[in-house]
């Protein structure tokens, strides 16, 4: 796997692997909840640091990657409360964002403030 | 004696029971429900504040007690009528700076998928049986309670803040910002896993009574 995205980790955590899924709003969360596997094993990509719509599945997520906000944003605070590894203000280099269904690794174990996404 | 006005949020709490427990404890307390309309346009923070403002305080002032979205109404009341608001009790606040437009998105999803189904799944609660919760989310999601930290710093009323970690709908960052910025705040940090104070109205009434004695309201 190689690094495809970088951002600010919310807290230190060993690398985790899961299935990438972009969640654009509550409709996507409801669709995920209706699926066979739910949110277990999902690394959620969200674009807004509010993301209240993640509330019903937060405890199931493997990790969260947000393209906005800071560790003190709502989603960062909630991820810390739920011990879900989280990278904020993530940007993706030349490879672009992973596609839904890709296996990705979120690594918040690196020294310093950076968290990375590998695919 | 100040009148304690108790108001719950959209998820339906125990506000009525809390008001009764406060009365049992020797306080003057009333329960109000500002979430009775099905018109999104009628939901503004100022309209929520008006629900507190309408109470008869006999000239002794009002202690505004609000849970969840109603805590925003209590805070709006303190800013709208500072001379009438003697103290604030804010449980699990949800509104910080600027509009919370994701509430509008949630309201739209609830309407698309049906209140019965979507509300239960998105909020992990039964939908309130006699309310249109999507209307309130839609209206309040587009309104602004606080422009920035200065609006919190300007609150002069003694404030009891009750917060709880591990609640994705009521994130601690909101409560923490209130605690940091409102100059006269006491904070009760509930232990995750314990039954919430909101669901123990008799205990909550005692805590509110202790607070009011401490600040001499």
Defining traits:
heterodimer, A: 7-stranded mixed β-barrel, 2 helices, 7 strands, globular, B: 6-stranded parallel beta sheet
Notes on the protein architecture:
The complex is a heterodimer of chains A (119) and B (217). Chain A is of the alpha/beta class. In chain A, 15% of the residues lie in helices and 37% in strands. Chain A is built from 2 helices and 7 strands, in the order E-E-H-E-E-H-E-E-E. Chain A has a 7-stranded mixed beta barrel with strand order 1-5-4-3-2-6-7. With 217 residues, chain B is an alpha/beta fold. Chain B contains 9 helices and 6 strands, in the order βαβαβαβααααβαβα. In chain B, helix 8 links the parallel strand 5 and strand 6. Chains A and B meet through helix 1 and helix 2 of A and helix 4, helix 5 and helix 8 of B.
Low-confidence stretches of chain B: none
The average pLDDT value of chain B, as a whole number, equals 92
Strand content of chain A: 35-45%
Low-confidence stretches of chain A: none
Structural class of chain A: alpha/beta
Please describe the biggest sheet of chain B, giving its number of strands, its sense, and whether it closes into a barrel. Answer: 6 strands, parallel
What fraction, in percent, of the residue positions of chain A are helical?
10-25%
* Count of distinct strands of chain A: 7
What is the residue-averaged pLDDT of chain A?
92
Q: Order of helices and strands of chain A, N to C?
A: EEHEEHEEE
Question: Going across the major beta sheet of chain A, what is the strand order?
Answer: 1-5-4-3-2-6-7
Helicity range of the residues of chain B?
40-55%
**Biggest chain pair interface:** A-B, 23 and 26 residues
| Class based on secondary structure composition and strand pairing of chain B | alpha/beta
Contiguous helical run count of chain A: 2
Q: N- to C-terminal separation of chain A? A: 5 Å
